[in-house]
Amino acid sequence: FTIMQRLKTAIAEDEFEVYYQPVIHLETGKLEVVEALLRWPQQDGSLISPEYFIPLAETAGIINDIGLWVMNEACLFCAKMRAEGFEHLRVAVNLSTLQFQDGKLPSIVEFALAQSDLPANALELEITESVLMDDVANIQHQLDALASLGVNIAIDDFGTGYSNLSYLHKFNAQTLKIDRSLVTQLGPTNENLPLVTAIISMAKSLHLNTVAEGIEHESTAAKLINLGCTRGQGFLWSKPLPPDTLSQQLKSHY
Ligand code: G
Ligand code: G
Ligand code: MN
Ligand code: NA
């Protein structure tokens, strides 16, 4: 079988897993959010990166099925964690541009929330800047519907693509995630410090929260706190983990 053929049966065969990575409030060190990250384990024990198979799924026309599955899984996991004592935990789910095409995203999200009994403000949807450039009217309409449910919108991978400020404003996002390529060397070498400083300051004046991704060093976290960045995510705290592992770690650490 080709990888494309196996990808098409992967949902029915229950082959996907969702891992979760903690997002920490930088000043308090508290866990606030977990980001859902899709994994496709292979029988030989290897992993194919979503960076590779998500574009394949988009080409194969199955990204909506996968996206729906991830949405339901992530909401159920977050609701379970909240019931187990992490009552303010929120979950972030990545979206592909194509998930906006058929107009069904708001009802899919509504169903996932109802099924899991998760409040809408516990869900954050991560979209990339490239999504915002696509079919503006259609996407804005659906983001408005999602916002009126109470769902939060985050702009992912900020600083890499087209940084169009007017779109940021228009789409009612609450959160800006600074791409890890701008963050990782910040502590050790000051690489990209002027750019990250400007992004955080701009986000503040637009009343947006900031999340720095890819924090691997204590020195990076310290600089980001000084710059007023809201939250952080990265290997310094934890890599993405399977739900049971994360749940066990949280219960012993937080
Ligand atoms: O977890 P990792 O760093 O390997 O993820 C690589 C890329 O795959 C990231 O850009 C991430 O946003 C994307 N990705 C991970 N899970 C999902 C998902 O459920 N849906 C979509 N559309 N993208 C995902
Ligand atoms: O595009 P998106 O931001 O959704 O991608 C998240 C990806 O970043 C995941 O694949 C995750 O594994 C990866 N990631 C998360 N934290 C770190 C980190 O500290 N260092 C590196 N190199 N990758 C990270
Ligand atoms: Mn993301
Ligand atoms: Na990113």
TrEMBL record:
This is Diguanylate cyclase. It comes from Alteromonas australica. Residues 1-254 form the EAL domain. The chain holds residues 363 to 616 of 616 of the full protein. It comes from the Bacteria.
